[in-house]
Amino acid sequence: ALEEGRLYDDGDAAIPLYLALLDRDADNEDAKAGLENARQRLLELGSQALDGAGEDAAALRDARRVAAVARGVWPDDEEVESYLQQVDLAEQLWQLNSEAEEQMAAGNYGDNYGEAGNGGAMAVLREVLALSPGQPRAMQNVAAVESALIRNAETAADEDDFDTAGVWLDRAGTIRPEASTVPDALTATYYGQRAS
Question: Are 62 and 38 in contact, with CB atoms under 8 Å apart?
Fold first, then answer.
């Protein structure tokens, strides 16, 4: 079962078989070695699942399943404990990113703009990035917030409301000050609309 990669799905998988052998004979060296190999392979599978867990719900589910098995069989193992902490972080990042996406869908972008009376998407995304700098899903969401603010500026400029357009562009400029997105939008939208 171990060679086939069947580690825990049923009673004929490697981990339950090795545990049953050790239950009968706690000194069975082959079973001990096999169980250790299964533990290592399980943590490798978990690590692979965690690699995709930021953007893929199925990968996060796989990481959770591995965590449940590892916690049940090796509750005091340091490598297992480290893996469990990584799964906890992945779950927290998933929840925070989902919350930010809900805020964005509701049009609540800023962390200090007062939309909907709370912190908004950027406050949540800043929390994600503090926990995991450069986390891809959060970075995509940050860019989406910036784009939404720029779209608001474009809409205001289309309506000849340049003061509001400027406010939206100023807000967008606080999102990623190092990026050229907002200065480009300022040139293309704000000044372009004023000139027409």
Answer: no
